[in-house]
Amino acid sequence: MDSRRPVKPAGIMTPNKLHKLRSALPSFAEGAAGALLRQYLAFYQLDFSKTYPLADYRGGLIPSGRYQLMAQRWLLPDARANLLLVHGYFDHAGLYDKLVDYGLSRQCNVLIFDLPGHGLSSGDPCVIEDFADYAAAVLDVLSGAEMPDLPTHVLAQSTGCAALTECARQQQWPYERAVFLAPLVRPAGWLGVRAGYLLLHRFTDSVARKFNRNSADEDFLEFVRRDPLQFRRVPLAWIGALQRWLDELDVDDLGVGPVQVIQGRRDGTVDWRYNVGAMQAMFPETSVHYLPDAGHQLANESRAIREAYYPVMDQYLFN
């Protein structure tokens, strides 16, 4: 139970404060950090001003289609690469402090953003009409953030990997190296999930979300349950978008890559046996590193598990 993030009282960053922050966010080009944004950074442990005093921080909105996406960037002098982080479903940038720290500690500029319907970005909570909107979000943020002219690597978790797979389908692949953590193709129990969707979507628009034990980090699990940016329903529209994407997805060589896949064998969120094979088919020569004791939330696994796979990422990204 070793985490950078102690359990905090839920009232420190309230839904009301977050609503006010969303309304006050500047454009990314302006990037002014007001009092509420500073509170957000402190609450989610994204304030790296003491750990990396030379890092230049900017946060603000970048447009992508009908969405306004909250993007955050840290630039280091003498950086050796840019590292783009793409979070998973129900996640947001505030939960990825460990991966931001990973990138900065490896002398990378770091860029992260909230996907549509997540975190501080606009959109109906955890809803997407088309997975192509996720791909557009990734590419629009990468373009709008004006990163330095350096090799760009990408590190994604779960649904973030699906967004990148969709980028590859569109032959939009500006990445030197890519690491996929617990990639999503099919969720676990997909046949049952799809049957439930077909049965229920005409009668309700969402079902209750269950907070799974998807990490060995107990502090993280407790924090997520109290996180004011968490949505507590599963919108059936998202399941429908996933089904349409899977129906269109040709599990064959996408002509880009390869990627480094890191996968926990205790992952009960995605159908990882199928998904790993699909990744190897779509990104030939992909390497897979299995973690016997890891769950799905690899970005927020225990320190011991993260220390087991960080060297794999180091070797792939920087050697």
TrEMBL record:
Molecular function per GO: hydrolase activity
Gene3D superfamilies: alpha/beta hydrolase
Domain Serine aminopeptidase S33 as annotated: residue spans: 78-302
This protein's record includes keyword Hydrolase: yes
Keywords: Hydrolase
Transmembrane segments annotated in the record for this chain: none
Protein name: Alpha/beta hydrolase
Species whose genome carries this gene: Pseudohalioglobus sediminis
Lineage summary: Bacteria, Pseudomonadati, Pseudomonadota, Gammaproteobacteria, Cellvibrionales
